[in-house]
Design goal:
By secondary structure, this protein is of the alpha+beta class. It contains 6 helices and 5 strands. The radius of gyration is 15 Å and the shape is globular. It starts with a strand and ends with a helix.
Length: about 170
């Protein structure tokens, strides 16, 4: 059995060590906040944070995450609470999630969890990114660009800026 930490909880998984993390999360652990997009690390829908770095769960073997914290979009509120020293609150969203709601970013939703993961990674490293830095993070950093089939890139940019403001203010929902 492989032991992994997902959204702050240690879990034991039975899957073969070479099984992609995406399938372990969704099929074995029931974590639905990670999406299947392409299966080739070319779209970003399956992005998760491995520690503080975005990785594509569709090509990351579960053995590669043993002993390292994995955060999906579902774990972002607890991650925020932990970083801010706040008591866990199931009603509180991470600032990136709140910004996505405020700006009504999602359309179909396929890419949005991965986009939120990438923006979280960016804002934790760079609290006041420019439009160019946000665009770079979503297009040229990582294995491939984050793709949005609906073309909601302008809303994603606005969501990232609102999230930066919320994070700077130290608040979310």
């Amino acid at each position: 059995m492989t032991k992994i930490v997902v959204n702050g909880q240690q879990r034991e998984v039975k899957a073969s060590p070479d099984t992609p993390l995406l399938y372990v999360l969704r099929n074995e652990l029931g974590v639905m906040g990670v999406k299947f997009g392409c299966g080739l690390a070319q779209c970003g829908a399956c992005s998760v944070l491995l520690g503080d770095e975005e990785v594509r769960a569709c090509v990351t073997p579960v053995a590669a995450v043993e002993g390292k914290p994995v955060t999906t979009v579902d774990g972002l509120p607890a991650r925020w609470a932990d970083k801010k020293g706040l008591a866990p609150d199931p009603q509180r969203l991470h600032p990136v999630q709140q910004a996505w709601v405020d700006e009504q970013v999602p359309q179909c939703g396929i890419c949005q969890f991965g986009m939120m993961i990438k923006v979280t990674e960016l804002l934790e490293a760079n609290p006041k990114p420019s439009d160019a830095q946000i665009t770079e993070a979503l297009t040229t950093s990582g294995p491939s660009p984050h793709l949005c089939r609906c073309g909601s890139y302008a809303a994603i940019l606005e969501g990232a800026h609102r999230a930066a403001k919320l994070m700077a203010e130290g608040r979310a929902a």
